[in-house]
Amino acid sequence: MRTVFLLATLAFVAPSAAFAGDPNQTKPNPLDKVVCKSDYFVGSMIPKRICLTKRQWIQAEQDGKDAIESAKGRWQPPDTLKGSSGG
After folding, report:
1. Do residues 57 and 32 lie in contact, with contact meaning Cβ atoms separated by under 8 Å?
2. Which residue has the higher pLDDT, 80 or 32?
3. Of 56, 10, 55, nearest in space to 29 by CA
4. Radius of gyration of the chain (CA)
5. Cβ neighbours of residue 74 under 8 Å, at least 6 residues apart?
6. Tens of pLDDT along 9-35?
7. How far apart are CA 19 and CA 60, in angstroms?
8. DSSP result, 32-52
9. Residues of 3-27 as b/e, b for ≥16 C-beta within 10 angstroms?
10. Do 55 and 34 touch, CB atoms closer than 8 A?
11. Pairwise pLDDT comparison (57 vs 84), residue with the higher score
12. What residues pair up with 37 in beta bridges, in sequence order?
């Protein structure tokens, strides 16, 4: 009985699957490919898996660089802070 059902299902699915590919379809953008990386976080010895598109990884890296550059301009040594009483 299951064999008959399986064959009947394949009879309908197989022909439609053969025509599913569109020859006019363009190639997918490589920046939209999902890339997964494992990373350790503070306080954990177990890595967490993070999956983002290539475009999102590039953006996250650029955001990190921008944050570091922004923080470099705001940093002041402790002895030049105004209003510190020194003790």
Report:
1. no
2. 32
3. 55
4. 28
5. none
6. 555 555 555 555 666 788 889 999 999
7. 39
8. GSEEEEEE--TT-SS-EEEEE
9. eeeeeeeeeeeeeeeeeeeeeeeee
10. no
11. 57
12. 50
